[in-house]
Amino acid sequence: MDKRIKQTFLILEECAKNQKQIYYQKLYEQIGLDRENPDDRNRGAHILAEVNKISINKNKTMLSSLVTLKVANKPADGFFEFAIELGRISPDIDENKKEKFWISEVKRIFKVYNK
Fold first, then answer.
1. Rounded to whole angstroms, how far apart are CA atoms 107 and 95?
2. Which residues of the chain have pLDDT under 70?
3. DSSP class of 60
4. What are 17-42's pLDDT values in tens digits?
5. H/E element holding 67?
6. Which residue range(s) make up the domain with 72?
């Protein structure tokens, strides 16, 4: 497993155990990426997709749901696009249902990591 993927997974598991979310900017800084750099943003998106694959296999949750945009206070569009790819939500889902899905995913993660 790639070092940054493992590091990201461990950071997000710690967030889950502490029932906290983290901003993309802070996460990227912790794993050595610059959120302002388009290549680093793409690398970060790939890392988060890989983290989700691992967490889905481990406990059926999308661990990256804990990562949010500071301004919007919700995940970036890539999170929802990946949820569609995985069949977790429908491609024609409206914004309200996307938000409900995301909130329920965060709650499930907190429950799984705080048994």
1. 19
2. none
3. S
4. 999 999 999 999 999 999 999 999 99
5. strand 67-68
6. 3-113
